[in-house]
């Protein structure tokens, strides 16, 4: 199709379905969105083209366009616009500005195909890609579908298909033409905004603004800080340089796509940052500083409409006046006003949202209300009311209370719907925020927990790993959402203009520090920022700083190579100049030990005192020799203004103490600080020179006036740098160039050694770009650098220690698990933190240990005698077991309620006899009822049930349960599996978790029936409340869940979701003995009717075997075991001997391997070996006593079936079979042939596929069995087990697998049950050590 440039007839056809936009009149055709429904083949082809194009879009489309651009969010536009409106109207009214919110009418439908193709060519798209796009639109036909009827076809000559995955990308490329025309017009002056570090644009009245800011901070500060804050401040000097962006070259997957450049924030004519244009697909905002920029803007828009057929939608146009431009009159006889009126703009389109005017704009932008504080509170209240109505509607759902479905509804339908509004329109009043979030939380609680409230909201909000259900925590959820852009600002990287306002807020709150972004990485509480007035910070930004201050304090994270090629420069390697400019106080990079908490008010006040004296950085406390000042007098001599900060509250002794602490922190850099800062450029040093980022190729000496340097290009939307191959001359003196702060992202290759990587697929292109753009600019020229967030981390607020890392585990795995240094509390790296990490950390701060485990709690006895670490480990073990995947949702909820002791039981919740156990009352015993008594201690119900459960479990799995331990019966914690056989016990965990949870719930149901019957107005006998009824209910529920797990495994395997699902079902349910397969369906083995063993008097030999998996240092192995017992006339057995040994194989026993050894270790091979040892032992008994009968119980049914088939094959071998005519047997010829085929398959040996030694062992066992039965007729009997092999036997066989010799370890057992020491028997038939001379 692509070769000929023509799609098939079906692929060219599209059905257009008008979809109502849910606003306006349904009778207005313009309120419908035409969605094109195409064929599946068309969408696949369009998606393939979109994947190719999508990788280049972010390199071509400028930073202001956030729609359909990877790694960009429309949040940036909303935050930037709201902050700019607030800043100019509140703090800088003398700057002013005009914002024009524009919308293209029928944007997708008016795109001209010829113009679209020319745009692709102008952006240097590969010819093949352009031809592919042309093919999609060549001869395209459309038919409109209305009221279920499809009209006639017509040719689509303009517009891109809405609903096609390629259409949004094509449109934003077309729209980028208009955006660039606005961006590159020198006559359009944008609205000035703060620079990279939060400094205000330079203006003659800035000093007054700065003094007013200090007064505002003092007025809103705490009393302690206010007492130490002066009201004077020097003028804030803007040292920001013009942001320059170079044109980047991007390699496309298909071939090469050359970008003509896409700038980020535009640059104002005055040399500072400016807001000019922002876009979200077809919604465009243009900001101009004065009306003088409107005529050139209208000319640009007119030109674009002329050659693109676009048209401005005047109905949706909004003009917002800011600051001094609020006096702009649309009706005036000026050129800007006249041009706007000619376009249809009237006074109704012009708005001012300052005090005394409308609180909101008449329409939302990007779905968010733009307005002042009153309008924000109205939108907040409306959102909360809508959330409450949604929750009331969802409560009628049939989903179970506290189920995952209801949790998903609370997170998705409630929070997800409200998040868009709440995230961008937070009131500045903390009281209003708290009340609104309380309403949202109550709606979520009612939806999930219902009226009965089986758990309290605090208990339910705990994570599932801490005895909770993960109920929505509205406050933590919103705090994490508010903090997300602030965390991006802290991480640095991409230079987005919205980040400037977060730096500005920090600078306004701490004006004495003269820092912006650097403050974000310190251990501040940021309460001063959160308390700024609405004129200085938006409500959502205030909440973001509150959330940042609520996180645990940042601490230094020692970097290590995690194996993925990334590199981080550790703090010990800091250069002298970088170290000297580090913030002095509350800096986690400098602290020798993690502080463990955020700064106190006294510590922040001390920092401000020092800052007022001009002491903010490390260099301010250093002598000329690079040593730290040792006492307060010496520091006052260096900074005389510090003397004015000394008073009764802050004495000189405090200064000396702080200097001593600083000296200890800086001791590790003692040599670095004493070294002199070089005056000449060093090899590999990064510098800014003539507007370029360069890197010196060699070290400058005295003889050098210049040195060669590599020139780097900057990727505008990410700040990444790549070498261009161009070489320039860099002045040798460092004073002739500006410092450039860079961090390296990958440390695999040098630029000259980097290989040519393939770019044929999207992942290959992404890897090639990451290698090419290997460095990142931390700050523009003239701006202070941000801290490398990869060196900062926070420790989760929990004392629970994660397990230590295993031998050989890579550092990358530890870091991914949050454990960069092995065992310890979980640590989150700031550079890698996600919104979820922030939310989970804030939720974890509320974590409380269930009161039932504390002193005086209902389950206090389970923690008796444990140390605090052991107690924490046990509580976490219980919590992990409660969330096992095999536990159904209903049982999980009951288990959680039981662990929290939330049932309506006991003296605290019931009165009189209702607080007592009804089952015990019937026998005259008065015992208070509680979860422990109900599920474990009650002799009338719980004990009988658990005895029956334990018996059924042991019969099916061979594992004995100690039901006298409440940790097992109530909490479901089995003894920890250790030793070689732990894999078998671990495989039983899903079945045990299901059995335990089901039993607890059925016992509770029976208790409720007994309680209701006993305390009824007319007492009666309860129904189905005996232990027999409970176990019957447990059996039915277990069967139901096993069938569900089987159906789930089949479905996942059939649909390709998990190819190992069937194997998992076999491992957890069938191979463990809990269930077996009957006619293709699973059947529960527990509580099945088992035949009595009925062993004849004599000798009973049981076999067992186990295979051990390969480890890092040892090959796979197998072991065998025999247990011998004497059977009396009464049928009772007395154990008398136990023997075990290793199964020989070439991998495990090397030179001592006998000829009959297995070539491959398998469990079936081990069972055959065990049977061979059993037959040898049986032969000894039969030969010793002429009357003794021997019974061998073969542990594996498969081994028994193999022996039976081999015996039949041996008996029929050589026996002639005379064929009878088909008529004589009443069978047709076809039936006779089929029967002959089946008989041949049964009698012929199976085809051998490799392990011939196992077949040899099988034949050898058959020969022994035949010989013994011939010699001792009717005295040897082989049988299959009626019960599962005991777990301890399997464990001992697994331990024997690692024996290095072939000796048998024999243990004799006395009549009183005492075992003698195990001894080694070197010759037990073929288990002896072989040598070549035998």
Structural notes for this entry:
The protein is of the alpha+beta class and 1334 residues long. The protein is 39% helix and 12% strand. It starts with 8 loop residues before the first helix and ends in a 13-residue tail after the last strand.
Strand residue percentage:
5-15%
Largest sheet: 7 strands, antiparallel
Spatial strand sequence of the major β-sheet? 17-13-14-15-16-19-18
> What is the β-strand count?
30
Radius of gyration: 40 Å
Query: Which regions are unreliable across 5 or more consecutive residues at pLDDT < 50?
Result: 204-209, 216-271, 799-823, 1215-1225, 1245-1250, 1325-1334
Query: DSSP helix count?
Result: 43
What is the topology?
Elements: H1 9-12, E1 13-20, E2 32-37, H2 40-60, H3 74-90, E3 97-103, H4 113-122, H5 127-137, E4 141-146, E5 149-155, H6 167-184, E6 191-192, H7 206-220, H8 223-227, E7 274-275, E8 277-280, E9 283-288, H9 294-308, E10 318-322, H10 335-342, E11 350-351, H11 373-394, H12 404-424, H13 430-449, H14 457-461, H15 474-491, H16 499-509, H17 527-530, H18 539-550, E12 554-556, H19 576-580, H20 601-612, H21 632-638, H22 652-666, H23 670-674, E13 686-689, E14 692-696, E15 706-714, E16 720-731, E17 738-739, E18 742-744, H24 762-772, E19 775-777, E20 792-795, H25 811-816, E21 827-829, H26 835-844, H27 868-882, H28 889-899, H29 918-921, H30 931-937, H31 942-957, H32 966-969, H33 982-987, H34 989-1014, H35 1027-1054, H36 1061-1070, E22 1075-1078, E23 1081-1084, E24 1098-1108, E25 1117-1127, E26 1133-1142, H37 1146-1149, H38 1163-1184, E27 1190-1193, H39 1197-1212, H40 1222-1225, H41 1229-1243, H42 1252-1271, E28 1276-1279, H43 1287-1296, E29 1304-1308, E30 1319-1321
Parallel strand pairs: 1-4, 10-11, 24-27, 27-28
Antiparallel strand pairs: 1-2, 3-9, 3-10, 4-5, 6-7, 8-9, 12-20, 13-14, 13-17, 14-15, 15-16, 16-19, 18-19, 20-21, 22-23, 24-25, 25-26, 26-29, 29-30
